[in-house]
Amino acid sequence: MNIEELLDKEKTQHLSLIDPDEQSPSKVKEIASEAEKGGTDAFMVGGSLVKGESILDKTVEAIKKTTELPVILFPQDHSGLTPKADAVFFMSLLNSRESMYTTGFQMRGAPLIKKFDLEVLPMAYLIVEPGGTVGYIGDAKEIPREKPEIAVAYSLAGQYMGMDYIYLEAGSGANKPVPPKMVKAVKENIDANLIVGGGIRNPKHAKAISKAGADFIVTGTAIETKDNIKDAVSSFKERIC
Ligand SMILES: CC(C)=CCC/C(C)=C/CC/C(C)=C/CC/C(C)=C/COP(=O)(O)OP(=O)(O)O
Ligand SMILES: O=P(O)(O)OC[C@@H](O)CO
Ligand SMILES: [Mg+2]
Predict the structure, then answer these.
(1) Cα 179 to ligand 2 centroid, rounded to whole Å
(2) Ligand 3: distance of its center to the CA of 114 in Å?
(3) CA-wise closest residue to 150 among 139, 142, 140
(4) 60-68 LR contacts (CB < 8 Å, sep 24+)
(5) Ligand 2 shell residues, CB under 6 Å
């Protein structure tokens, strides 16, 4: 399945986030296979911290050997790029105070992306409270949870800049996901594809965010920490509409 087909689907899609630093390539194969059996729609690969030896290429290779589902890079900077993937979320952290995260790393990565011939998916990345590690590293001015109008304004700004994807991110492992009210407000105001992630750890969360209008939900921690990944993914998929 390619990314065009992924976009054609009417239901909310499930993206499995794999952090290349968290496990060995053989474990990645197991995760990818189980997530596919559970019905995941595509894989994202990235992590905000580099905790060990960079095994990005090997991680993407392991997924590609296991499944034909698309693999989309989710780069923390230009070092998160590899020709082994299918596509890259070419993201700008619009609510960062640090210009490297709005335009700098994009400039560093762009020639590599051209060379690697990756499909480019332009994305506005927006950090919502609490924001977690990525909020801290990305020097984000986190969008207050009770201010959906700010999320709408940033999302529209992203769309008007030409971004096809808007990602509302509460931060990996957040104690609460992005409020469904905020998701709904953004969805009602944009034409771009809406991705929501951070803190979605049970089927109830997935259902609320899907009902609010997300086109994609991302789960990372829930997949990394569950013993039965297939059941975890299928429990999300069953509840999304
Ligand atoms: C387009 C290019 C080349 C770069 C974009 C650079 C930008 C805007 C980065 C945004 C800020 C950032 C640090 C993003 C990381 C995104 C990411 C991979 C998050 C998921 O990782 P976590 O699961 O939170 O990471 P840890 O588990 O390492 O905390
Ligand atoms: O690890 P979780 O909480 O699922 O978050 C996923 C993703 O939105 C992080 O960038
Ligand atoms: Mg992580």
Answers:
(1) 15
(2) 27
(3) 142
(4) 60/20, 60/84, 60/85, 61/25, 62/25, 62/26, 62/28, 62/29, 62/32, 63/18, 63/28, 63/29, 63/32, 65/29, 66/28, 66/29, 66/32, 66/33, 66/36, 67/32, 67/33, 67/36, 67/43, 68/1
(5) 17, 134, 169, 172-174, 197-200, 218-222
**Phi, psi dihedral angles at 128 (to 5 degrees):** -105, 150
The CA angle 36-41-44, to the nearest 5 degrees, is 95
Separation of alpha carbons 42 and 36, rounded Å: 8
pLDDT digits 0-9 by tens, 28-61: 999 999 999 999 999 999 988 776 666 899 999 9
Atom 6 of ligand 1 has which residue's CA nearest to it?
A: 77
Q: In this predicted model, what pLDDT tens digit does every residue of 124-151 receive, in sequence order?
A: 999 999 999 999 999 999 999 999 999 9
Compute the distance between CA of residue 228 and CA of residue 212 in angstroms, rounded to an integer.
Answer: 27
Closest CA to 73 of 85, 61, 58: 85
Measure 214 CA to ligand 1 centroid, in angstroms.
Answer: 20
Where do the structural domains in the chain lie, given as residue ranges?
12-239
pLDDT in tens, 173-213: 999 999 999 999 999 999 999 999 999 999 999 999 999 99
Pocket test for ligand 1, best of 19, 48, 112, 218 (most atoms within 8 A of CB): 48
Q: Is 173 annotated as a binding residue?
A: yes
Q: Which CATH architecture has domain 12-239?
A: Alpha-Beta Barrel (3.20)
Instruction: Using DSSP, state whether 107 is helix, strand or coil.
Output: helix
Position in ligand 1 atom list of the atom nearest CA 89: 1
